[in-house]
Amino acid sequence: MAKKSIGIVIYGNPDHFPPTINAVHLLSEHFDVILIARNQNYPPHWQYPTNVKVYRLGRYASQEEIERASARAKLWEYINFVTQARCLLRNV
């Protein structure tokens, strides 16, 4: 019997938050996990279990680029992220 799937959407970089990493590992024991995050800060460096699919949405941006962006650009990026995440969760 196949595991059920669960989707997790995080607007930050989950690789740098130990509680998030732990939660994904615990959930992966019972579910196939779809982890959606923003493509920011640092290139991915955490290895998740094989039944965890990680999608990093948007263009890569460093912390400095994010801080320098205008409020309008940040709002537009958030709207695009939410829209892409919703479409991705519907199609997976």
Question: Can you walk through the features of this model?
Answer:
By secondary structure, the protein is α/β, with parallel strands linked by helices. The chain has three helices and three strands; from the N terminus they run E-H-E-E-H-H. A three-stranded parallel sheet has the order 1-2-3, sandwiched between helices. The protein is globular and about 45 Å long.
Spatial strand sequence of the major β-sheet: 1-2-3
N-to-C terminal Cα separation, in Å?
A: 19 Å
Biggest sheet record: 3 strands, parallel
Average pLDDT taken over every residue: 89
Q: In sequence order, what are the helices and strands, one letter per element?
A: EHEEHH
Query: What level of helicity do the residues show?
Result: 40-55%
Range of strand content:
25-35%
Radius of gyration: 14 Å
Give the overall silhouette. Answer: globular
Number of strands: 3
Contiguous helical run count:
3
Structural class: alpha/beta
Low-confidence stretches: none
Brief overview:
By secondary structure, the chain is of the alpha/beta class.
What keywords describe this structure?
single chain; 92 residues; alpha/beta; three-stranded parallel sheet; globular
